[in-house]
Amino acid sequence: MKNNKDISRRSFLKTVGAGTAAASLVIAGCAPKKKAAPEDAPASDSPIPTDKMTMRQNPKTGEKVSLLGYGCMRWPTLPDDDQTLDQDMINRLVDKALKHGVNYFDTSPAYCKGRSEEATGIALSRHPRDSYFIATKLSNFAPETWSREASVKMYNDSLRYLKTDHIDYLLLHGVGMGDDGMETLHARYLDNGVLDFLLAEREAGRIRNLGFSYHGDVKVFDWLLENHDKYKWDFVQIQLNYLDWKHASEINPRNTNAEYLYGELEKRGIPAVIMEPLLGGRLSKVNDHVLARLKEREPERSVASWAFRFAGSHPGVLTVLSGMTYMEHLEDNLRSFCPLKPLTAEENEFLYRTADLMMQYPTVPCNDCKYCMPCPYGLDIPGVLMHYNKCVNEGNVPEGNQDAEWRRARRAYLVSLDRAVAPERQADRCVGCRKCVEHCPQGIDIPAEMQRISDVTERLRQNA
Fold first, then answer.
1. Rounded to whole angstroms, how far apart are CA atoms 27 and 137?
2. Is residue 81 classed as helix, strand or coil in its secondary structure?
3. CB of 369 within 8 A of CB of 177?
4. Which is nearest to 105 in space by CA: 163, 152, 52, 60?
5. C-alpha distances in Å from residue 403, one per residue of 367, 396, 410, 420
6. Residue 111: which residues within 8 A CB-CB, separation 6 or more?
7. Strand bridging mode 317-322 / 68-71
8. Residue 137: left if φ>0, alpha if ψ -120 to 50, beta else—which one?
9. Backbone phi, then psi, for 56, in 5-degree steps?
10. At what angle do helices 345-359 and 244-251 cross, to 10 degrees?
């Protein structure tokens, strides 16, 4: 595989020190049917303290918010039924989180095929209402939900599903997505009077904090902040991690570097809520040789902990969201935040250099959010992209001479592809309809990537 910087895999491995041994409205996003343990499990078995969670203060209310926030986009499903949420396990995860100080739970009408709010409400309502904060969103993505009546109904449904009479943190969901970000912002929230309705709800106390989650078009982000005096945003949710800090716009020109987003919020004193600290898991499933680089520095910590500590070390961050499907994920993240050990200036520089190295051998910037699904032609778009990224990270996208290593990588690529994605759902079935592109918060040209991956796969199959 060749990329824009024309660096071979062998050159990349030399660079990072390969001699070290490797240590639509309804959005999917719940856990896959197979309940596998996380690949990067924590090394320590020591007890996790229940009274050491690092807290941040909401400057408006003075309330203490846990620096680790629970993202409710990937709740687990039943072992033999990936259409049904595992409420018992969700309850156990929520109980464990609350016991260890997590008090911020982020959901949406669109998560888990529309079932996340109800499941989250069931789990949380078993506890005193003043022991947790609920964050949810007005996820009126589909044009048929853009009317004031439909949007207000969605908001009232959220209150009902979440079993509450107020929302602690309410967000305009996914502003800036698509090629016409400002036009869509006006259609979803401004011209129909929906934002005025939400402002009135905040004034009445049924919304305690009002903000927005930003994806994509920086003109929308800048316009909303330029009008901060009018709307008085209480918080803003942004994508922030050590790869996107300086490289987001290189990964995709439509994206905005997290350094800029965070800096603009910090200048105005607006708390930042962080999404995608792991880039949909990509920063916990790094190339084997980047893994070795990180493990050499902190052998007792998971690779994921580097990303969480990076996000949490910024003082303007109110909470860092993580979609924790498995108890192992939750326990590992609790170790990172109970309490947080902030990164030093030298450790930040180490991560910036690590990000530079990762950019020399990039994967497709898919976060596995499944906003692109369902595909009208049946493709498993996230499955294809995540399989390709996994093969890149493991060195199983063959290049160069057809030697023994090439043949090994070729076999690993093809065998794992057919195990990961059914043949009728693979990249070669893409017809280029582009229905998926408008929904991708990363701005990926998905049909182009499908064609590229299809070409790679076909080349490998023909060289049997």
1. 13
2. strand
3. no
4. 163
5. 33, 13, 11, 26
6. 27, 29, 30, 72, 73, 75, 117
7. parallel
8. beta
9. -120, 145
10. 20
DSSP assignment, residue 340? B
Calculate the alpha carbon distances from 64 to 53, 55, 100 in Å.
11, 6, 14
Neighbouring C-alpha atoms within 13 Å toward the C-beta of 143? 3
Report the distance separating Cα 120 and Cα 13, nearest Å. 44
Between CA 109 and CA 207 the distance in angstroms is 16
Tens-place pLDDT, residues 373-413: 999 999 999 999 989 888 887 778 877 778 888 888 889 99
Model confidence, pTM = 0.80
Rounded to 10°, the helix 345-359/288-297 angle is: 170
Peptide bond into 374 cis (omega under 30): yes
Separation of alpha carbons 107 and 137, rounded Å: 7
Q: What is the helix (H) or strand (E) element at residue 246, kind and residue range?
A: helix 244-251
Q: Helix/strand/coil (H, E, C) string of 5-48?
A: CCCCHHHHHHHHCCCCCCCCCCCCCCCCCCCCCCCCCCCCCCCC
Q: Partners of 105 in the beta sheet?
A: 70, 134
What is the distance between the alpha carbons of residues 77 and 89, in angstroms, rounded to a whole number?
9
Which residues, 6 or more positions from 135, have their beta carbon under 8 angstroms from its beta carbon?
69, 104, 105, 106, 107, 167, 168, 169, 170, 171, 273
- Specify the amino acid at residue 395: G
pLDDT digits (tens, 9 = 90+) for 62-111: 999 999 999 999 999 999 888 899 999 999 999 999 999 999 999 999 99
